[in-house]
Write a structure and sequence with these properties.
This protein has a two-stranded antiparallel sheet. The chain is elongated. The protein has about 80 residues and is mainly α.
């Protein structure tokens, strides 16, 4: 799988990608960093991973991003309810 394919799949699935947020010159070497929620970052080392490992890591990243987003929403809801 190529770097561009991984970026396309990940962004379609909901992970943010901004090459300016990536580490210097690592994206050219195939090390991609995606942005999650509230400062989360997820990385994929394309040349050193099989397609199956890439899909597995993208799935893990999406689950972690969803958990953090849910916790943030619950935290906000509980704060609103206790402001009495």
């Amino acid at each position: 799988m190529t770097v561009d394919e991984v970026i396309k799949i990940a962004t379609i699935m909901g992970l943010g990608h901004n090459s300016r947020n990536n580490y210097d010159d690592l994206e050219e070497k195939g090390y991609i960093v995606f942005d999650g929620v509230n400062g989360q970052r997820f990385s994929i080392d394309v040349p050193n991973m099989s397609d199956e490992e890439i899909y597995e890591n993208l799935g893990i990243a999406l689950r972690l991003m969803g958990r953090r987003q849910l916790k943030m929403e619950l935290h906000t809801l509980l704060n609103v309810m206790t402001d009495g």
